[in-house]
Specification:
seven-stranded mixed β-sheet; six-stranded mixed β-sheet; globular; 15 helices; Aldehyde Dehydrogenase, Chain A, domain 2; alpha/beta; binds nicotinamide-adenine-dinucleotide; Aldehyde Dehydrogenase, Chain A, domain 1; about 20% strand
């Protein structure tokens, strides 16, 4: 079934509305470039109105000081609504991003789990008391909401990324202005539709959760706005830098989840078939458009370089068999890239890599299949003979391009893995438990998988070392990002101290 064109709106101060100046943008399906929706393009006036609504809702105090159980109930009801609309949301996500339906369903379930996790966490949080060393004084440390939070998200995991931010932000008692990527805004719009009833039933003021749509200028207007107290941003490194600069003017709190150039280290004692299988998932899930994609394979040569040779042969054979197609169709293993511009960028990286001496072992071109000509497809690509000096090894490509580098010793693998400005995620494959732990300890990464790739749970923190970001999402730290910490000291029966003579 092909979609009908939907018209969506901004959500400001409790009402769905068009952009103040009437501007609109068309959102397309990356599978066939067909139109999916018309969405308003917010102006700075719309952003200002949304921020003022969020400010007024926060300052009114009704939400910030609502019992945690009431805020948790909003999250739980929204989680229930996501599950009720699971199939609809998954289809919409696939239409908007091109990813397979199986992946989109996973994203809906993960978003649901994150909402439930923060609903539970916030109701068990009560700060802590601290020993004052005095019988006549008590001291406690409490956590309070930061204020107005701008939540800016990218196009690759639209529903999941906004939920990772929205759930802890609302749980903590903040008010929010969300801005999804202009490329894939549709499930965020639907999430806001589903959020309305729970918020209203909880008695939250109308400006508690606002939604603005549009491109980088809308995000920049939020990052600069003096009434925004916190910016939580997920996206590319250079955009992250400009968000940080804009936020500096009023010393906003900033949480950044940026890119990665993630190493997948495979030692020669690994089971070859299993490690190849996971290397493919690491690199080509969602056509490699994943911040934690295992886009750098570091492969141990093994005796006479036999292991590396057999591994790359099998990897390339299987990469060439990956079935591209419509994310909605049964049997599709990989969808298209998200846009024509993005595919062109990935192709430039690929041409540069070949010019620098990389050897093409799989993919490297658009598919021939006539049914895939309208979409933004690129075949899963394996490049060998790569070395750390190459741009394709250092820069985030964010597409289905896997580079292979070889090593002999453990120290060399660690040095290669850490030789990048990024530090988001990566994996180590070996049957030697001691080596696995040693390597995991030495990797400068926010997430390390041992003999696995990609799994995570809402209870465990997610984020980057080095230039992959600041702060953490998920886990208890993900809630702390949206909280100020306050120390309250109370003297029970004060008497004059006479520091100064009377
Ligand atoms: P992007 O940086 O181009 O855009 C991200 C968001 O920022 C979009 O909503 C965009 O409209 C907005 N934006 C653009 N310019 C802005 C500005 N000057 N000020 C404020 N906001 C602005 O990123 P993208 O292309 O949408 O997403 C891909 C990037 O996201 C990749 O680098 C990927 O690694 C990263 N990412 C990171 C994580 C993580 O958890 N670390 C997760 C997903 C994606």
């Amino acid at each position: 079934m092909r979609p009908v064109v939907r018209t969506t709106s901004l959500f400001i101060d409790g009402s769905w509305t068009a952009a103040a100046d009437g501007r609109e943008r068309i959102v397309t399906n990356p599978f066939d470039a067909s139109d999916l929706a018309t969405v308003p393009e917010a102006s700075t006036a719309d952003v200002d109105r949304a921020v003022r609504a969020a400010r007024a809702a926060f300052d009114a105090g009704g939400w910030a000081h609502a019992p945690a159980a009431r805020r948790a109930a909003v999250l739980t009801a929204t989680a229930d609504a996501l599950q009720e609309h699971r199939e609809e949301l998954a289809r919409l996500e696939t239409l908007d991003t091109g990813k397979t339906l199986a992946e989109s369903r996973y994203d809906v379930d993960d978003s649901t789990a994150v909402l439930r996790y923060y609903a539970a966490l916030v109701t068990t949080e009560a700060g802590r008391t601290v020993d004052t060393g005095r019988p006549d004084a008590v001291s406690r440390v409490v956590h309070e909401p930061v204020g107005v939070c701008a939540l800016i998200t990218p196009w690759n995991y639209p529903l999941l990324q906004i939920t990772w931010k929205l759930a802890p932000a609302l749980a903590a008692g903040n008010t929010v202005v969300a801005k999804p990527s202009e490329v894939t805004p549709l499930t965020t719009v639907r999430l806001f539709e589903l959020l309305q009833q729970p918020l209203t039933e909880a008695g939250a003021p109308p400006g508690t959760a606002n939604l603005v749509l549009g491109g980088g200028a809308v995000g920049a207007a939020l990052a600069e706005h003096p009434d925004v107290d916190l910016v939580s941003f997920t996206g590319g490194l250079s955009t992250g830098r400009s968000v940080m600069r804009a936020a500096a003017e009023t010393v906003k709190k900033v949480a950044l989840e940026l890119g990665g150039k993630n190493p997948n280290i495979v030692f020669a004692d690994s089971d070859l078939d299993t490690a190849v299988d996971y290397a493919l998932t690491a690199a080509f899930l969602h056509s490699g458009q994943v911040c934690s994609a295992g886009s750098r394979l570091l492969l141990q040569r093994g005796p006479d370089a036999q292991f590396a040779a057999a591994f790359t042969a099998e990897l390339s054979r299987r990469a060439d068999r990956i079935k591209l197609g419509d994310g909605l169709a049964k049997g599709t293993e990989c969808g298209p890239l998200v846009s024509a511009d993005h595919r062109a960028k990935v192709e430039r990286h690929l041409a540069g890599a070949l010019a620098e001496g990389a050897v093409l072992r799989a993919g490297g071109a658009r598919p021939d299949d006539p049914e895939l000509q309208a979409g933004y497809f690129l075949r899963p690509t394996v490049l060998t003979d790569c070395h750390p000096g190459m741009a394709v090894v250092r820069e985030e490509v964010f597409g289905p391009v896997l580079t292979v580098e070889l090593f002999d010793e453990e120290d060399e693998a660690v040095a290669l893995a850490n030789d990048t400005p990024y530090g988001l995620a990566g994996a180590v494959w070996t049957k030697d438990a001691g080596r696995a732990e040693r390597v995991a300890q030495r990797l400068r990464l926010g997430t390390v998988w041992i003999n696995d790739y990609h799994p995570y749970v809402p209870q465990a923190e997610w984020g980057g070392f080095k230039q992959s970001g600041t702060g953490r999402e998920l886990g208890p730290s993900g809630l702390r990002e949206y909280q100020e910490t306050k120390h309250v000291w109370r003297t029970l029966d004060p008497a004059p101290q006479y520091w100064f003579s009377d």
